[in-house]
Amino acid sequence: DTEVTQTPKHLVMGMTNKKSLKCEQHMGHRAMYWYKQKAKKPPELMFVYSYEKLSINESVPSRFSPECPNSSLLNLHLHALQPEDSALYLCASSQGTTNATVGYTFGSGTRLTVV
Amino acid sequence: GEDVEQSLFLSVREGDSSVINCTYTDSSSTYLYWYKQEPGAGLQLLTYIFSNMDMKQDQRLTVLLNKKDKHLSLRIADTQTGDSAIYFCAEKIKAAGNKLTFGGGTRVLVKP
């Protein structure tokens, strides 16, 4: 298995809802990432987990709450989002976070619309 | 700094070669990457080059790295309509905790 699987593919939620995005990989990768991508823009890093511990939080608002239950799973819990949070949310994984790590594998993303 | 810059758009005829350019600013980059993103999809890693290399060839793809000028290019030979997509260059910066920083993306349109 050489894929990163993200669910759901599409999500529409109201500003008072609570929802979660899920990401799964079975490549034995020990680093997992959340990126946010607005239309016609590059992906922007949100969070990095290394060996199931949060290692980087790029000053993301607390309405986004990441969770790494085990080395294969990464969740992003969403609460009280704003319409400007609508974007494509991409999960990625890599073998590690050292400079020896070569590639990141990206999932297909969850397209989130906040109404 | 962590700026990675690319031109916005490239139009090319089917069968011709495409060259996508990228400039980066951080000399502590370890790896430089090219990703492809088709509409509505995630990012697909096309190829990468280690910072101590000058060139890497992988089938139709050729990556050239000029470390002195901090310039990276991706050449796609015999461009096909399926190559129409957005191409992102990215650098992994050791000094920034090995974060992956993306350029703004180049939209490539292949005309028949």
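Residues 86 and 107 of chain B are 4 Å apart (CA to CA).
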